Structure formats: C-alpha cells, structure tokens
C-alpha cells in the first residue's frame, strides 16, 4: 500500500460574488518535495493559498493530510495542522525585535507572569540556528533586509513544527545573494522531509528547485507533471492556453523629434550629471545594477526629487519640475517601481484610480462639474482597450491580480495622453500572459508617438522592448547602445565598468 501524500486537495471549488475563483481543482504535496504551482495572475493560486491558511474555506471538495480528511477553518487551525504560509507581504511586526517576533503570542513567562527575556532570547537563537543562524535576536526587525526578515518568518514556521510550507513569490524583493540563501534553505528543508509549495513566475527558480509542477488556468487545474517532463514553453502554453510566439511583439520604431532632453541634470547628492534624450515614438531602455541610480533618475525627471544641477526641456521648452504635478502638466507620466505603495489607491475602485491624476478632467466635466456618465464611459473604454479582467470598473483594486492592477496604472496615463512615459520595472510580479499584454500596450504607446523610458532589471525584457539602451553606473550614464549593440553581455560589461569605453 502506497504512502498517502502529505497534503491533498480534491475537487475543490470556491466562488465569490461575480467570480468563480476555483473549479474542481486537484493538488497534492508529498513529504520531502518542492512542488511548484504556476499560473497567470487570477488563475486561482492566491485563493488556494488562502484556503490552506484558513482564510477561506472551500464551497465543495475536500482537504486531506496524511490521508485523513481535515477542515482548515481558521488561521489557527492551519497552524495546528502544521501548515505555514510565507506571503509576499511578510506577516511580521517591524518595530519589535527578532526574538519578540519569533515568540509573538507565545512569549515565555516567569513565575510572576512577566516576559522571561533571557529565555525569550535563548529560544530565539535556537530557532534561528535551525535555519542557518547569522541573525542577532535582539535586532529590531525593521532594520533587517527583506531577505533576512523572510528568514525570520521561515524560522518561526519551522519552530511551530510546520510540515507544509507555502512560499508565495518569495524572491520578488530579494537581492541575488538573498535569493541564493533562500534556495539553499529550501533545499535543506526538503531534505528534512518538509513539503514545500512554491509559487513563482520565475521559470529559472522553478527549474532549479521544483520536483513537480502544477499549472492552474482560470481557476481550473490544467495538469501536473515532473519537472523533467516539461519544457518552459510547455508550461507557458498551459498557463495562457496558447503558444506565445513573440513575447515582446516589438517592431522597430522610427523616432521623431526630441520630446524630452536632459542636460547635466543631477540631485547634487550622487545622481548625475545625466545627459539623455527621449524622442517621440521611441522606447529607450535604462539598464544597470540595483543601486546604480535608475529609479532616482526617473524621479528627478518626474519632479519627485528636485533637480539641483543641469536643465530639462520638454517639447523644446525649458521646464522646472518642482513637483510631480508640474511634470504631469507638461505631459510627463511615471509608473513607479512599487505599484502597491506608490501608484495605487488600493481601497478605491478602478474608475477612481484611472481618473485620480486630476489632469484631463476637462474632458469629462462641464464648467468644473464632473459628469459621472462621461467618466464611466471613458473608463470603460480604457478597461476594454487594456483587457483588464474585472467584474466592472467599480471593482476595488485590492480584488484585482497584480497584472490587472498594473494595466489600470497604465490606463491612468493613457487617459491623459502623455508625451513622455517613464516606466520603472513595469512587469515586476506580473505573470507571463499579463507581461505580453503590457508589452503590447507599451508598443502601442510608442506607435502613437509617446516617448517611453523603461527601467528593467530583467535583461531579456529590456533588450526585447527597447529601440536603444542606456546603461547606468554610479549615478551616471555609462554607455548608450543601439539595438544591435545591446546584448546581455554588453549591458552587464558596462554596468560593472568592465567594458572598454564605459564612461
């Protein structure tokens, strides 16, 4: 008789008002296995995770552990069953120490009922040692990098005797070194017999770690297979229901007149002097290592940071962007790196997020009075053009997948017809299908005459969408490469200062 899987979900369905999130899905996880779950945003992965965490319960179907039916009805019940979920947004208290976070709600007590601080620290050190150590228990958590905070949360899960560990996009905010440490930790926990459910859009991670791969699409189970039996193209085809023949859908653009010109701009504190020109109908990539100053350069242009040196011109006219509103009035838009913290009003509707810049409202108002019907028609047209998956334009942003949230952010700028659009990591945390749609939108903007600057740490993406590439190093532009000159190797040589001719 074969050993039952550690975890099995059979025929599980879940519906929310207006949305069938999961329909009869199948999933199983074995002890000592890394099982990757892949699918587009909105495929049902998050709903499955929340069921395992005890946040949602199935409408139908069942969950088993070690072959026995269980009910995961609350988060505490999930913990009691040995299930731990490490979310993208970590569930920790940044103002407390590492030791306090590891014992939160279960603090050791003295005979007088006060917290036993010596025991608290001793137990925390032991918990951290189980996941590699190297973290001082007395450190305030908020002072650690995201990668180290993630290790703390994993240490807490291991200390609670978790047998099932769910990792949701665990490397999204990690440096390369932190990601490598996480991979080693995952492999170590697999060797100890833990079952790991690994959710990621990053194919290279899945192929490094996963023993088996399951694909969801539109709330349905598409298939499960050993990693060795699947090519990356097979996985993508299963995820999107079609073969992506040309991911970037990019045609070379013939640039027009200079739309934005920066001459020696800088912040007086390490960024600059920067010289760059963006032309109408052209997509310019901005590459470089993390910390090279790419985001800061975009913020200078957009007025989020003050230009202390140099000059900026838009449409041949000298401008002074003292604030983002000045930039917007001059036709410059900016999609920041962190959409959740900087680009969205998550509790507001799609409709309100699209019109929130306040610019272009003259098209939907009469003598300063906003016309609701006109706004609704305009937003509905944007939603349709951008293929935003939603029940209506009144749906809250928190209910959308990451890819659809990003399309709404882009829709905000399309609504005001910018002359220049600055895009900082526009596809971070977005699935492969949504990425292709975002590339289509960017290509359409360029064909409509918008000057586009795209910052990306994904080199294939940067090279795939750009007409030419600028490379930054140490706060300045180190090289300008034509589309023919720009390869992953040449970009990295200039980014690291190895290439001959780097500035």
Automatic annotation (TrEMBL):
Chief location category: membrane
Domain of life according to the entry: Bacteria
Start and end residues of each ABC transporter domain: 7-243, 242-499
InterPro entries reported for this sequence: AAA+_ATPase, ABC_carbohydrate_import_ATPase, ABC_transporter-like_ATP-bd, ABC_transporter-like_CS, P-loop_NTPase
Cellular component, GO, one term: plasma membrane
Protein name: Ribose transport system ATP-binding protein
Topology in membrane: Peripheral membrane protein
Sequence intervals crossing the membrane: none
Classification of source organism: Bacteria, Bacillati, Actinomycetota, Actinomycetes, Streptosporangiales
Keywords: ATP-binding, Cell membrane, Membrane, Nucleotide-binding, Repeat, Sugar transport, Translocase, Transport
Organism: Streptomonospora salina
Family matches, as PROSITE patterns: ABC_TRANSPORTER_1 (PS00211), ABC_TRANSPORTER_2 (PS50893)
Cellular localization per UniProt: Cell membrane
PANTHER family (alphabetical): CARBOHYDRATE TRANSPORT ATP-BINDING PROTEIN MG119-RELATED, D-ALLOSE IMPORT ATP-BINDING PROTEIN ALSA-RELATED
Gene3D superfamilies membership: P-loop containing nucleotide triphosphate hydrolases
GO MF assignments: ATP binding; ATP hydrolysis activity
